[in-house]
Automatic annotation (TrEMBL):
This is FAD synthase. Gene3D superfamilies: HUPs. Keywords: ATP-binding, FAD, Flavoprotein, FMN, Nucleotide-binding, Nucleotidyltransferase, Signal, Transferase. Residues 117-181, 197-270 form the Phosphoadenosine phosphosulphate reductase domain. One of its GO terms (biological process) is FAD biosynthetic process. Pathway: Cofactor biosynthesis; FAD biosynthesis; FAD from FMN: step 1/1. It catalyses: FMN + ATP + H(+) = FAD + diphosphate. It comes from Drosophila suzukii (Spotted-wing drosophila fruit fly). The gene is Flad1. Pfam families: PAPS_reduct. Residues 1-19 form the signal peptide. Its EC number is 2.7.7.2. It is an enzyme of class 2 (transferase). InterPro entries: PAPS_reduct_dom, Rossmann-like_a/b/a_fold. GO terms for molecular function: ATP binding; FMN adenylyltransferase activity.
Length: 320
C-alpha cells in the first residue's frame, strides 16, 4: 500500500468528535480479509476550528476510572485455566516471532515517519496481537502510543462484543481512534482525502487468510485502491502462534472466542465453529438458514482448542 494519509496534527487529534448520523450499511467483512467490496455510508462532518474533515470520526480517549472495571466482553487470559501448558519450544518460537515483528517495526520506521502510519483494528484475535506487539514496541522505543492511530471500520451488523472490546482497547492502550463505516477500500479512499499524510497501514493479515497467500510483508495496494503501503508483520504467524502469544503475554481478547468463535466477521455471516461443539450441546448454529446463534455459551469449546487450523473459518457462512 504505497501512499496513504499522513497523520493528522496533534491539535486535531485532541478534538472531540460530534455524534455521527449512522445510516444503514451492508454487512462488512473483517479487515483481516485482503479485499472488500461493501459500499460505504458517509459520516457527519467533523470540524476543528477551520479544519473540515468529511467522512471522518476521530477522537482521542485516555485512561479513566473505567480501566479497572471488569467487562464481560474482555477476557484476561490468566483467567482461562483450560489453556494447555505452553512448552519451552513453543515459548521460544513465540519469542522469536515477537523479535521478528519488532525488527519489522524498526525497518518500517526507517522508511516512514511515525506520523505517516496507522494500524487497522477489527477486534479480532490477529489484530489484537498486532495491537499488543505494536504498543510494546512503541513503549520500548519511547514513542507515544497515541502517535499511531487506530482505524476501526464499524458496521451496523457488527457484534456488540466486538464494538465494546474495541472501546476497551482504545482506553487500555491509550490510542487514538479513527472510525469509518463501509468497506476497507472505501474507508481508505475517504481517509486519503481526510488525512493525506498517512502513507502506510499496519494490517493483521496472515497468509492463511483469503486472498493473502501471496502477500509480501510490505505490499502496495492494487491499482484500483488508494495508493499506500500495506504492512503485514504477522504473515507467517499460524493460528496457534496467535493464541500462544495471547496467553503467554496475558493479552485481553474478545469474549466471543470463549464461545466457540474462531474467525469473526459480522452477526449475519459468523457462527461458532461447529468443530468446537461439545458432544452434549443442543444448538443449531451451523444452520446456514439461521445464522443467529442464541446457544448456551458453554455449548462450544474455546477457540484455542481447535486442533486443525485449516478449519479456522468453518464458522463463516457463505455469501448469498
Amino acid at each position: 500500500m504505497r501512499g496513504w494519509v499522513s497523520l493528522v496534527t496533534s491539535s486535531f487529534l485532541l478534538a472531540r468528535a460530534r455524534p455521527r448520523l449512522l445510516s444503514t450499511t451492508r454487512p462488512l467483512s473483517t479487515m483481516n480479509q485482503c479485499r472488500q467490496i461493501s459500499p460505504i455510508s458517509s459520516n457527519t462532518i467533523i470540524s476543528n476550528g477551520t479544519l473540515s474533515k468529511k467522512h471522518l470520526f476521530l477522537e482521542q480517549r485516555s485512561m479513566s476510572g473505567r480501566s479497572g472495571e471488569d467487562s464481560g466482553d474482555v477476557v484476561p487470559p490468566e483467567d482461562c485455566p483450560s489453556y494447555p501448558p505452553i512448552t519451552p519450544q513453543q515459548r521460544l518460537a513465540i519469542e522469536e516471532r515477537q523479535r521478528q515483528a519488532f525488527t519489522f517495526f524498526r525497518q518500517t520506521l526507517q522508511i516512514y515517519g511515525v506520523e505517516e502510519l496507522i494500524f487497522c483494528f477489527n477486534g479480532g484475535k490477529d489484530c489484537t496481537v498486532l495491537l499488543d506487539l505494536l504498543m510494546r514496541f512503541l513503549r520500548q522505543e519511547n514513542i507515544s502510543s497515541g502517535d499511531i492511530p487506530m482505524l476501526y471500520i464499524k458496521s451496523g451488523d457488527s457484534f456488540t462484543e466486538i464494538d465494546d472490546f474495541v472501546e476497551r482497547c482504545v482506553l487500555n492502550y491509550h490510542v487514538d481512534l479513527v472510525e469509518y463505516e463501509g468497506s476497507l477500500k472505501d474507508a481508505l479512499t475517504h481517509m486519503s482525502a481526510d488525512m493525506p499524510r498517512i502513507r502506510a497501514v499496519f494490517v493483521g493479515s496472515r497468509n492463511t487468510d483469503p486472498y493473502c497467500q501471496h502477500l509480501a510483508p510490505m505490499q502496495p495496494t492494487d491499482n484500483d485502491w488508494p495508493p499506500m503501503m500495506r504492512l503485514n508483520p504477522l504473515l507467517e504467524w499460524s493460528y496457534h502462534d496467535v493464541w500462544h502469544y495471547i496467553h503467554l503475554n496475558s493479552v485481553p481478547y474478545c469474549s466471543l472466542y470463549d464461545r466457540g468463535y474462531t474467525s469473526i466477521g459480522n452477526r449475519s455471516n459468523t457462527i461458532p465453529n461447529p468443530h468446537l461443539r461439545r458432544p452434549d450441546s443442543q444448538c443449531d448454529c451451523d444452520s446456514s438458514t439461521n445464522p443467529a446463534c442464541s446457544c448456551d455459551p458453554g455449548g462450544f469449546r474455546p477457540a484455542w482448542e481447535l486442533e486443525d487450523p485449516a478449519l479456522e473459518r468453518a464458522g463463516r457462512l457463505p455469501r448469498k
